[in-house]
Design brief:
5 strands
Length: 167
């Protein structure tokens, strides 16, 4: 009697898509996060959150700069905790969380290049403003050459129901 063929190890360790979302206080952040969560849930992927904290601005007043960075870091940790709970409610999984110090444009590219599991960057677009967000402008122009993953831009005027239709 012939033995049943074994499933290949490659199939057992299929790479899950990871949807990276930049956490900020913008109105369109909700749409970007909701879209990423619904896509991750539908393809059995995961959500990753990135929050960047700017470095100390007042280097000649080191103590003041360090205090400002520490306060910003605490606020960022609280925001990431809140959004992690939201991701868990929407997907049933805890997100991968990244908290970095530095310029968000530089840190996004660095994180994507350092973490091979990240497969898609999801950004929200402010549809109320005439000018394009500087982060989106950068990533769709100069930064695009450095970004190894597709960028999904989610319009901020879409409702959850609208997003459910496309996820």
């Amino acid at each position: 009697m012939a033995k049943a063929p074994k499933k290949s190890a490659k199939k057992a360790t299929l790479k899950r898509r990871v949807f990276l979302v930049v956490v900020d206080e913008s109105n369109e952040f909700h749409q970007a996060l909701y879209f990423a969560c619904m896509r991750a849930k539908s393809v059995h992927g995961r959500v990753a959150l990135l929050r960047c904290v700017g470095g100390a601005e007042f280097q000649h007043w080191v103590g003041v700069g360090e205090l400002m960075v520490e306060e910003a870091r605490e606020e960022a940790e609280n925001l990431l905790r809140e959004q992690s709970e939201r991701v868990h409610k929407l997907t049933g999984e805890h997100p991968i969380v990244h908290l970095r110090e530095g310029d968000v444009k530089t840190e996004i590219i660095s994180l994507i290049n350092e973490e091979p599991e990240i497969s898609i960057l999801v950004l929200g677009l402010d549809t109320q403003d005439e000018t394009t967000d500087s982060l989106i402008s950068y990533l769709t122009s100069r930064g695009a050459a450095q970004c190894r993953v597709p960028i999904t831009i989610v319009p901020g005027n879409l409702s959850d129901k609208d997003l459910d239709k496309v996820t």
